[in-house]
């Protein structure tokens, strides 16, 4: 079996965004497109000769074909070993864990995460480094630069490998190890949590539902929640991964996971419910009659993590993405530990985790994680919540109220305007930046463009979103999404703090209505985009 080189000319726009390269599936299916990006990735990291790679994806449409292409290319480029999830499946956190546990040099994750799947929907690919985390900006920039000069890619001319059973086989000179995608991940979870305590909680009648949204967490949740923790069969909903996620939108938020939200809001609903996204790195947490905002979830987890075996030693620090509410900072302050504010995207947490500066990290977009891997981790967050609920013997609602009575409440919501004309979106952001240089309207204290200096390696990232600080302490953030595949998505993040003595039980959208109006007055967003309301509110 000899390696061959095929000529290819550069494709425009192969620029990794917030989390890898995401495009319409048909774009990825163009002859040579995937190959050009994979070869550019290999070239940008100094080749893969003699390296060990972890490869897997969320099982969406084109996963099965793309993984064969990647395997052939890894072999033709001289990789020593490829560790592949059975049937090509690996959740993003499980891939991160495998890279770390097996000392691999890196990994390729096939996923467009929370974006819908299907031939007319989205596909994606990202490269993770040896620490198990998404490639930092310097690496993604090198990959992008290489995509612009690429002239050919190397592959083997062989038949597809059968990935349906765990085994070790060979492709050219490369050893291909097909592993059960769940085993190592489940074992890691058992080292972090008190499975006995969670089992007792569930055995005592505490009712749980987990919505896998027809995506990759189905097998993980079934094994961990139903088999190992003894939750009744049927606890996991939509647990069989499908290539188009049951034609749904595998994004665990109150819009796309509405049936689950309706369930917990009902009288006879479960005590606890959660959902994860396409690739298993996001989580939505619900309790009977209550939706926990991801920003609050991070704060509650930080305040209670010491009750759980894996974090009993305490936390080194807490990191949150800039648009995430400042609720976690209040906890960090009380605990006397460091709090970090990073740009959006998990790649910015990697250095803090590697350096032992942060133990927990979180994003308002339903991402929470810790130093156990280098990705956000949906099921891990669910288990951490369950372990805390078991330890505190309180309901989710009681825990939230107790938290707000201690720290105050950061009313928080994100409003998304999707598929906006790119020029209009760019002009809106540019105008806001321009405004910051002029006298500010009454009630606004400061407007700035967020820049981040990594405290570990000193690298600087500019233009990470516009922050608007109001005189009353409220804050709004505006930024453009880096994961969309159609037009621009404008994200407006809104937060207003109320002290423990204030009104803690208001409806979030009501509490934030004056802020929404102030943002409209400042940006004329609705008028300029012609939208009456956001497409998604979290
Ligand atoms: C979004 C979220 C961000 C998250 C990213 C990847 O990015 O806002 O917090 O890290 O998705 O998540 P953006 O650029 O569209 O705002 V996932 O679960 O799609 O890997
Ligand atoms: Co995801």
TrEMBL record:
It is an enzyme of class 5 (isomerase). Its cofactor is Mg(2+). Residues 14-151, 185-286, 295-407 form the Alpha-D-phosphohexomutase alpha/beta/alpha domain. InterPro entries: A-D-PHexomutase_a/b/a-I, A-D-PHexomutase_a/b/a-I/II/III, A-D-PHexomutase_a/b/a-II, A-D-PHexomutase_a/b/a-III, A-D-PHexomutase_C_sf, A-D-PHexomutase_CS, Alpha-D-phosphohexomutase_SF, PGM. It catalyses: alpha-D-glucose 1-phosphate = alpha-D-glucose 6-phosphate. GO terms for molecular function: magnesium ion binding; phosphoglucomutase activity. Residues 1-20 are annotated as: Disordered. SUPFAM superfamilies: Phosphoglucomutase, C-terminal domain, Phosphoglucomutase, first 3 domains. Its EC number is 5.4.2.2. Gene3D superfamilies: Alpha-D-Glucose-1,6-Bisphosphate, subunit A, domain 3, Alpha-D-phosphohexomutase, C-terminal domain. GO terms for biological process: carbohydrate metabolic process. It comes from the Bacteria. GO terms for cellular component: cytosol. Keywords: Isomerase, Magnesium, Metal-binding, Phosphoprotein. It holds the Pfam family PGM_PMM_II. Belongs to the phosphohexose mutase family. This is phosphoglucomutase (alpha-D-glucose-1,6-bisphosphate-dependent). It comes from Sagittula salina.
């Amino acid at each position: 079996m000899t390696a061959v080189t095929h000529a290819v000319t550069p494709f425009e726009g192969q620029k990794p965004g917030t989390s890898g390269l995401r495009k319409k599936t048909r774009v990825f299916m163009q002859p040579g497109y995937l190959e050009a990006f994979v070869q550019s990735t290999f070239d940008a990291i100094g080749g893969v000769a003699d390296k060990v790679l972890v490869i897997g994806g969320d099982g969406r449409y084109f996963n099965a074909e793309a993984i064969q292409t990647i395997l052939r290319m890894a072999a033709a480029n001289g990789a020593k070993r490829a560790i592949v999830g059975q049937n090509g499946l690996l959740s993003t956190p499980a891939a991160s864990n495998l890279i770390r546990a097996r000392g691999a040099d890196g990994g390729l994750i096939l996923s467009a995460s929370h974006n819908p799947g299907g031939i007319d929907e989205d596909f994606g690919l990202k490269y993770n480094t040896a620490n198990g985390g998404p490639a930092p900006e310097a690496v993604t920039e090198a990959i992008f630069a290489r995509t612009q000069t690429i002239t050919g890619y190397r592959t083997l001319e062989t038949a597809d490998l059968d990935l349906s059973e765990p085994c070790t086989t060979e492709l050219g000179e490369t050893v291909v190890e097909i592993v059960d995608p769940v085993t190592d991940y489940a074992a890691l979870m058992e080292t972090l949590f008190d499975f006995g305590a969670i089992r007792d909680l569930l055995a005592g009648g505490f009712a749980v539902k987990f919505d896998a949204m027809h995506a990759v967490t189905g097998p993980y949740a079934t094994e961990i929640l139903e088999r190992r923790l003894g939750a009744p069969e049927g606890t996991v909903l939509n647990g069989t991964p499908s290539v188009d996620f049951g034609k749904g939108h595998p994004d665990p938020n109150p819009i796309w996971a509405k049936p689950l939200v309706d369930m917990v809001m009902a009288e006879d609903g479960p005590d606890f419910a959660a959902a994860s996204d396409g690739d298993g790195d996001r989580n939505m947490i619900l309790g009977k009659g209550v939706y926990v905002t991801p920003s609050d979830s991070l704060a509650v987890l930080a305040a209670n993590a010491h009750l759980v075996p894996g974090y009993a030693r305490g936390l080194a620090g807490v990191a949150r993405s800039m648009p995430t509410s400042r609720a976690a900072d209040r906890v960090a302050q009380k605990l006397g530990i460091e709090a970090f504010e990073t740009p959006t995207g998990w790649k910015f947490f990697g250095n803090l985790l590697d350096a032992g500066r942060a133990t927990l990290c979180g994003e308002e977009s339903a991402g929470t994680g810790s130093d156990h891997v280098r990705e956000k981790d949906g099921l891990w967050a669910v288990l951490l919540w369950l372990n805390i609920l078991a330890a505190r013997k309180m309901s989710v609602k009681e825990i939230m109220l107790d938290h707000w009575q201690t720290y105050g409440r950061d009313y928080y919501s994100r409003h998304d305007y999707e598929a906006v004309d790119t020029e209009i979106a760019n002009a809106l952001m540019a105008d806001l930046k321009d405004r910051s240089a002029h006298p500010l309207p009454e009630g606004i204290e400061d407007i700035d463009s967020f820049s981040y200096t990594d405290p570990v390696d000193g690298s600087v990232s500019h233009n990470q979103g516009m922050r608007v600080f109001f005189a009353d302490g409220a804050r709004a953030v505006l930024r453009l999404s880096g994961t969309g595949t159609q037009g621009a998505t404008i994200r407006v993040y809104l937060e207003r703090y109320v002290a423990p003595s204030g009104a803690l039980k208001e409806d979030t959208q009501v509490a934030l209505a004056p802020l929404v109006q102030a943002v409209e007055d400042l940006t004329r967003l609705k008028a300029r985009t012609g939208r009456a309301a956001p497409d998604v509110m979290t």
